[in-house]
Every structure is written in structure tokens, then in C-alpha cells.
Amino acid sequence: MTDAPTGAGAGRAGLxxxxxxxxxVAAAVVAFAGIWFGREIxxxxxxxxxxxxxxxxxxxxLERRGWPKWAATTIVIVVAYLILAILAGLxxxxxxxxxxMLPDYADELQAxxxxxxxxxxxxxxxxEASDATSSILDxxxxxxxxxxxxxxxxxxxxxxxxxxxxxxxxxxxxARFGRLxxxxxxxRADGIGARYFSGVRRYYxxxxxxxxxxxxxxxxxxxxxxxPIPIVWxxxxxxxxFVPNIGFVLGLIPPAVLALVVGGxxxxxxxxxxxxxxxxxxxxxxxPKFVSDAVDLSLTLSFFSVVFWAFVIGPIGAILSxxxxxxxxxxxxxxxxxxxxxxxxxxxxxxEGSPHVVEPSQAG
Length: 364
What we know:
Layout: H1 8-13, H2 17-37, H3 39-55, H4 59-64, H5 69-101, H6 106-122, H7 127-134, H8 139-178, H9 187-225, H10 230-240, H11 247-295, H12 299-313, H13 316-319, H14 321-332, H15 340-346
Keywords: Cell membrane, Membrane, Transmembrane, Transmembrane helix, Transport
Transmembrane segments: 21-37, 43-62, 74-100, 152-172, 204-225, 231-253, 265-286, 306-328
Subcellular location: Cell membrane
């Protein structure tokens, strides 16, 4: 009678490759379903983590000058709070300006909606299609949109308390971890962590820089064309610049629609063309080179991550999509020597020894 295989031979048999893939996919579905159910708790945590990652390098020059650890940590918290305060202030101001503008253009909105409905009907479209399209410009619909934006802002304000608390705790923990010889238990893990943190910082620095340039140019363009509340659309252009791939379209739609209302199709076309020249030049031709150097993500994965994370944790997921995708890759793909194919499909991230690696002491 033949003995059953034992030892190393049995270990090599293991599960079939297809079975392992199916188990991995099933585990991922369960994990992301859990994130979806806990998104109201995890979204503020993700926001706070990103803000602390951005603000943390402030401590290094302070400590080199002899500042005590607690003082450097306090400055990190202050910088993080300033970032949050500026973003919250911009969003509150833009929302208030948009809501205040609506009553002034109610008649123009109704006239434009009726004109669009007539045009669609003359082209042979059904009444339902023309009614659905024209209802988008109905003042009541826009007021409802504004109300939903206000509700979302209220929900964000409720979560803002948790963000502020998380920032304090994370900044203190980052200072403590920074004193350890290895942050994540080994040189390779520290290298992966360092690449992740530095990549997130570079990504947001690049996007903030190009977003500010785009916002100024778009705002000046709209002001010159006489589009109402151009500063609001400039703020929108800045915020949507943090949404990969589709941010330009999201920032274009509102001012283009408003241009249609106040100036008709010629003005709307001018806005679309001018926006396209400015934003395509900066966001499509120039910015991706800098973003690619920062995060090394493929364009397909970048676009998919926007849709996926917006579905999993809500609208804030669109802005946090790149850091969250980088985190998944750093935790699950980069440490695995057998995941070379996945690494290349994701954008061929830098490996140990690349110029992207920073000192482990800065990994926090």
C-alpha cells in the first residue's frame, strides 16, 4: 500500500491557483462590504490620516532646531487644523454663494428649461425625455440640490469633530513611532511605508499646486465673460482637481450650464472651449507627468479607484481615492514577491533602491 505524500511534497500541492484567486476575491468582497457598512466612521478616519500624513514633515526641521517633541507635535496638529479649516471655509463660502444666487436667476432658469424642452421636442424626442432634461434647470430642482449639498455639509460637520480628534491622536502616535528604530518591523516594510507616505504627500502637493493654477485661470476667465459668482466656480475647479480623470468634467458642468442660462449657447460654447484649453493643457498634458512620478498608478486604475471608493465610502472617497488605492497596494501587493504581475498592472511602483524611497524615520 502506498503511503500518502507527506512533508514538503504535500505542502507544495496546496490549493489550486483558481481556488486561491476565488478565496482572495471572496475575502476582498467581505472586507469592502464591511468598509461600506462602517463608512460613516471610517471616512473621517481616512480624512484625518491623509491630513496628518501631509502635515507630519513639518516636525523634522523643528526637531533639528532643538524643539521638544511635544512642541513639534503641537505644530503638526496646528498645521493639520489649518488645512481642514481652509478647505471647510472654502466649501461653506461656495455653498452659501450658490444658494444665494438661485433666486436671482429663477426666471432665466425657467426660460432656458422651456427652450431646451422645445428644442428636444422639435428633434423628435419624447415628451418624457424633454421633460426630464429640462427639469434639471428647474429652480425647484436646483434648490433641492442645494438642500442636499447643505445636508451633506451638515453631515460632514458632524463627522468633523471625529476628524479633529483623530488628528490629535494620529499626530501623537506618529511622533512616538518616529522614535522607533523600525516603524513597521523591518527595513523592507519601512521602505514600503516610506514610499506610501511620501507618495501621498507628493500627490496632494502636485494636485493642490495645479488646482490653484487652474482655479485662478478659470475664475479670471469666467469673470471676464461675465458669468455670475466666478469665485464659486474657481473654488469648484480647485476641489474637483483632486478627483482623478473626471474632475475637469465635474468642475466644468455648473459654469457651462450657468453660461447657457445667462448668455445662450454661444457663451456656453465659449466657456466649454476655454475651459478645455486651460484644463486639458494643464490637467491632461502636464499634470499627469508629475502625478505619475508621485504615485505610479495606471490611468485605468486611477479612474476605477474614483468610482470604486466613491461607492464604498461616499463622495469623499473620490478625493481620497488615490491614497486609499495606494494603501491597498502597499498592504497587499508590494510585500508579496509573487505579485509582480499585479504590481506592473497597477503602474509598476518603485521598488527598494529607487529614488522614491525616503528614510524610515520619516515614514510616519
